[in-house]
Amino acid sequence: MLHNEYDRLRQFSHAKLIAVKGITTWNNTPVLLREYFEGQPLDQFLNTHSLTEHQCLHLAVAIVEAVQSIHDAGCIHTQS
Questions:
Q1: Kindly report the CA angle at 18 between 49 and 60, in degrees rounded to 5?
Q2: What is the C-alpha to C-alpha distance for residues 4 and 74, in angstroms, rounded to an integer?
Q3: 17-43 pLDDT, tens per residue?
């Protein structure tokens, strides 16, 4: 199952998406290797920072562009 996810994630290429790098095993558990990203989750960031209207719009556009790149790769995401 993890190999299917890895194969799917390899199709996504966008500057705003964290890339998948491979699959390995750690403590006998398979794990996905992802590009290193330094920062904090968006919800935590928004709880500690006030954004201007312009900054909010810039952030919203960046998120929409990233999600669009996933759709363009043929992945329609749903909650399961």
A1: 45
A2: 14
A3: 888 899 999 999 989 899 998 888 899
